[in-house]
Amino acid sequence: MSRSIALYHHLWEFNEGRGVMALLHGTGGDETSLLPIARTVAPGAALLSLRGNVRNDMGDLRFIAGGPPFAYRAADVKPRAHDVADFLNAAAARYGFDLEDLTVMGYSNGGTLTGGMLLTRPEVVRRAVLFRPMVPMELPPDHNLAGKEVLILGGRRDDICPPEDSERLAQMLTLAGARVRLRWRDAGHLLHPDDFEDVKEWLARDEEG
């Protein structure tokens, strides 16, 4: 059942000609957190930035309950993945963009949720950039992900989202048919400027076909 676009507070920054990027922040962030990164890696893109509506025990905003230091549960991830997918469908109708032109970029909790959308609602996500994600669920994907383009950026010294999660998620998506590129930084959970250069290169290569 379609849900209201009011489900997520968000910012919409219209630009014409370079596609649309949806942004999903990490725990403790908000709808402004990834805007500077998006403007750096995809100058000229329209930006749709969501605010998570789940709070942890500290009151921090996020998209999914659970997670570090524990694994995510499919029971937590799936309904939230459907919520965000429904929101993106409604936003495409309201703001007049094609989901084929959409890239979803998520960091940490938001990146894990984006991985969950690929596994449960792949029709909404053609391209995805996942910064420091965890495996969203242990269940194998039920969908053929042929035609999906995914960039995963992991930190070798990440003590919040373990490097092995990036590897396992890349394997899951690849086995389901997605074209996955996994890039590593000698870094922890925080993002590194070289991450952004990787994203710019990957987006440019995708635009070239």
Please outline the helices and strands.
Blueprint: E1 10-13, E2 20-24, H1 35-41, E3 46-50, E4 54-55, E5 61-62, H2 74-95, E6 102-107, H3 109-120, E7 127-131, E8 149-155, H4 163-175, E9 179-185, H5 193-207
Parallel strand pairs: 2-3, 2-6, 6-7, 7-8, 8-9
Antiparallel strand pairs: 1-3, 4-5
Helix pairs in contact: 2-3
Task: Write structural notes for this entry.
- With 209 residues, this protein is α/β, with parallel strands linked by helices.
- Helix content is 33%, strand content 21%.
- The chain is globular, with a radius of gyration of 15 Å.
- 44% of the residues are buried.
* Estimated radius of gyration: 15 Å
Low-pLDDT sequence parts:
none
User: How many strand segments?
Assistant: 9
Helix residue percentage: 25-40%
H/E series, N to C? Answer: EEHEEEHEHEEHEH
- How many helices in DSSP terms? 5
Q: Provide the structure class.
A: alpha/beta
Whole-Å distance between the termini? 35 Å
